Amino acid sequence: QLQLVESGGGLVQAGGSLRLSCKAFGFSLENDVIGWFRQVPGKEREGVLCISSNNDITYYTDSVKGRFTSSRDVAKNTVYLQMNSLKREDTAVYYCALHTSTCRSSLAFRGQGTQVTVSS
User: Fold this and answer.
1) How many CA atoms lie within 13 A of 23 on its CB side?
2) Tell me: the pLDDT tens digits for 23-56?
3) Partner residues linked to 59 by β-bridges
4) Most buried of 35, 73, 85, 91, CB within 10 angstroms?
5) Are 25 and 5 in contact (CB under 8 A)?
6) CA-CA distance, 17 to 26, in Å (whole number)?
7) How far apart are CA 2 and CA 25, in angstroms?
8) Closest CA to 2 of 107, 117, 115, 116
9) What are the CA-CA distances from residue 11 to residues 4, 105, 120 (Å)?
């Protein structure tokens, strides 16, 4: 079964850092395009960033530029979202998703998400 599983969320103070993991099961994400998204209850999903097959980063929102980045560990079949200088407005459920081709393509499927809460 093809699956993405996120982990690493939690409660952090504003200004702190968290690293989220997105582990793939049932397939290798070595050359896959993975997007990170977030959603607050009652609001629309917001794209955060995307890591391409050659590990270039495309930001979907300017609000995280300079603070968030992504990387890939092929040996662990995992993509990471490193979040620094966190702000209260970063509070959301974060999930990763497999793009069908490029960072602007549709999503094949996504993980279940992990909650990130930033306190002041």
Assistant:
1) 6
2) 999 999 999 999 999 999 999 999 999 999 999 9
3) 49
4) 35
5) yes
6) 30
7) 6
8) 107
9) 22, 32, 11
